[in-house]
Amino acid sequence: MHVINMIRLVHRMGSPHTAERAMESLDPVGCRIIQLPKISDARGNLTFVDGGRGVPFDIKRVYYLYDVPGGETRGGHAHYELEQLIIAVSGSFDVVVDNGFHREKFSLNRSYFGLYMPQLTWREMENFSSGSVCLVLASRHYDEADYIREYGDFQKAAGLGT
Length: 162
Ligand code: T46
Known about the structure:
Radius of gyration: 16 Å
Helix content: 10-25%
Oligomer: single chain
Bound molecules: dTDP-4-keto-6-deoxyglucose
Number of helices: 3
Strand content: 35-45%
């Protein structure tokens, strides 16, 4: 590993971003929290996502994770091209993101915050609360060829490793 890469390999896992904190500074991994509109009235809250407005990609696919058993993890891979916005529409979970240089943890627990994840981001999702629902807006249709499932392959794709 190059010396410069070793210097930039920073693990800040002890101090997860809350959505509020993350908005104050650009995350070094390249992820960021996007605040979505929240319309509140006596009947409850409403949040919407308008394609082409506020989300930095065209939305091609929507999927959601739910009924995740306690202690279970999801992800554990990266994508060559896919960009995503991840929203805890119900409950909470943590997303660990890694660009090969830096590793950060985001705790998502608000229906009106989305975590934007650019291409070439390794992600691991954990600590799902009971009944939580993870909504994902994606920039591409499902394509197994876009997955990077081995961390070593991810490092090479990110310009690291040998
Ligand atoms: C990510 C996290 C948050 C499909 O057929 N279509 C789809 O759109 C998706 C997402 C998955 N699948 C199939 C492929 C596998 O046979 O569903 C199965 C489970 O998919 P995967 O192991 O990729 O699920 P997660 O939860 O580990 O990861 C998914 C996304 O793949 C990933 O990009 O960020 O959710």
